[in-house]
Amino acid sequence: MTVSVRDEGEGIEEGRLEQARAEGRLGVAQSIEGRVADLGGRVSIISSGGEGTEVEITVPSAQPPAAVERAVRGRRGPGPSGRDPAT
């Protein structure tokens, strides 16, 4: 299954995502790419300053429900109430 999202906004300046990864900031690397990788998929981000952004997410369509739940639960953790929002 592939999902593609595009916008015509300001885009992401060249090198900004790589810089964030190098600095250890979680952002895109963990919130999007990490979860998709846990599902055996991949993420492609095409963007440049002033020209919008396209994010394409591809995951195998035959993921067993337990694998999907483990991937989501493993990244979330408890919410502000101390309760795990996945339960």
Architecture blueprint of SSEs:
Layout: E1 2-7, H1 16-22, H2 27-38, E2 42-47, E3 53-58, H3 65-76
Helix pairs in contact: 2-3
What percent of residues are in strands? Answer: 15-25%
Structural class computed from helices and strand pairing? alpha+beta
| Number of β-strand runs | 3
Mean pLDDT: 77
Distance between the termini: 26 Å
What does this structure look like?
- The chain has 3 helices and 3 strands, in the order E-H-H-E-E-H.
- It has 87 residues and is an alpha+beta fold.
- A 3-stranded antiparallel sheet has the order 1-3-2, with helices on one face.
- A hairpin with a 5-residue loop joins strand 2 and strand 3.
- About 6% of the residues have low confidence.
